């Protein structure tokens, strides 16, 4: 029987942690494995900045379709942004609480040179630094925030030029993104080896402290998923006309599919069946629900915030209020521009730019992917619940006459 990719990565993590702890910091194999892990990680980091640029341009630069011009679609997107922002703030708050007391020693070799980020410069300098005088130089220096800002402005500008020319640029960026995703896919084929090397390295020098923090990260993700799911159940109870008991009966099959498949897309048929069971009008549901599946992954900003703060703690970095605000902002933006990417690829496309933007090294980020399976079950169940809950609230009052939509 073929072992799934996530199972092979998890096996690499467990083997690396165990053997690294057993071998200790004086192991003769440590330099070789450090090199292997470093090369693999560099290959994984290589496409990140151009990929983020291409995804922002393709996601925001294309012309809006007929669904996007409808009133219900605009209301849905507004609701998505509002709730995603709340999810990001919740993730930052939960991460700050759950990871505040952790100290992991023995990782100086993979940490940044300092253990605390420098104080923020004056506001004027901060704002000037956001504007990339030379976007190519910013990309070369790994300055992700100016690159994202340039990509946003570029994408918005494309919507104000001749549509045919804009589509040509968007299609080219889509091709670039597709090619970069292929490269990431190739790198991930050897992820079990890379994760094994990284895990061996950190366990040899820090013991099981890293493993303990990863377990605590899993707990934080599960707690976050449960809280988000409960919040949208409560939202239905407060804001929807539909009876809560009716909603819970209708959503349960979709939640079960989400929990078992860890895929909102695979859960879409069950979600559509839930909306039919709730008696929602078919046409507005046909607009809102696909948008929700594509754009409204409510657990993603929370997960990005938790992972960034856990990664900062592993690196001995304290994030200030400004950095935490930037984490929340980029978590929402990344959630919107990586819609539809495969889970393992979207993990790096979403998490790495946020960490880099606030000065957190991403050398240990692949270890978080290895333990993502269990949290992702709860996260996907929360996503599906939120999708149907928001669809219910937005569409249950809409008449079935399409002229009134």
TrEMBL record:
Listed GO MF terms: symporter activity
Principal location class: membrane
Membrane topology: Multi-pass membrane protein
Claim: Cell membrane is one of the keywords in the record: yes
Gene3D superfamilies: Sodium:dicarboxylate symporter (1.10.3860.10)
Transmembrane annotation, as ranges: 5-24, 44-64, 76-99, 136-158, 179-202, 214-240, 288-312, 324-342, 348-371
Subcellular location, record wording: Cell membrane
Protein name: Sodium:dicarboxylate symporter
Organism whose genome encodes this protein: Sphingomonas melonis
């Amino acid at each position: 029987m073929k072992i799934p990719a996530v199972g092979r990565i998890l096996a690499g993590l467990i083997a690396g942690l165990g053997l690294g702890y057993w071998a200790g910091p004086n192991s003769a194999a440590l330099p070789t494995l450090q090199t292997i892990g470093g090369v693999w990680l560099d290959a994984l980091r290589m496409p990140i900045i151009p990929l983020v640029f291409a995804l922002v341009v393709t996601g925001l630069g294309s012309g809006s379709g007929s669904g996007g011009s409808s009133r219900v679609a605009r209301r849905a997107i507004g609701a998505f942004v509002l709730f995603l922002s709340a999810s990001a703030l919740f993730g930052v708050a939960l991460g700050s609480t759950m990871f505040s007391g952790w100290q992991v020693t023995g990782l100086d070799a993979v940490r940044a040179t300092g253990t605390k980020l420098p104080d923020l410069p004056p506001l004027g300098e901060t704002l000037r630094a956001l504007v990339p005088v030379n976007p190519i130089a910013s990309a070369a220096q790994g300055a992700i925030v100016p690159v994202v800002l340039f990509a946003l402005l570029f994408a918005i500008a494309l919507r104000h030029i001749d549509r045919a020319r804009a589509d040509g640029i968007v299609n080219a960026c889509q091709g670039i993104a597709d090619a970069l995703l292929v490269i990431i896919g190739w790198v991930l084929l050897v992820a079990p080896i890379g994760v094994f090397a990284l895990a061996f390295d950190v366990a040899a020098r820090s013991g099981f402290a890293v493993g303990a923090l990863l377990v605590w990260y899993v707990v934080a993700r599960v707690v976050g998923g449960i809280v988000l799911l409960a919040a949208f159940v409560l939202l239905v109870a407060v804001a929807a006309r539909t009876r809560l008991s009716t909603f819970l009966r209708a959503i349960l099959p979709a939640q079960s599919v989400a929990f078992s498949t860890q895929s909102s897309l695979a859960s879409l048929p069950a979600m559509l069946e839930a909306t039919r069971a709730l008696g929602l009008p078919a046409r507005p549901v046909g607009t809102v629900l696909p948008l929700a599946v594509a754009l409204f992954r409510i657990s993603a900003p929370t997960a990005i915030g938790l992972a960034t703060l856990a990664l900062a703690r592993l690196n001995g970095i304290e994030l200030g209020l400004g950095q935490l605000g930037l984490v929340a902002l980029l978590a929402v933006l990344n959630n919107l521009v990586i819609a539809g990417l495969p889970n393992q690829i979207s993990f790096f496309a979403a998490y790495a730019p946020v960490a880099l933007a606030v000065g957190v090294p991403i050398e240990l980020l692949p270890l978080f992917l290895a333990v993502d399976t269990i949290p992702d079950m709860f996260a996907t169940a929360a996503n599906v619940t939120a999708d149907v809950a928001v669809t219910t609230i937005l569409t249950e009052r809409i008449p079935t006459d399409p002229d009134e939509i």
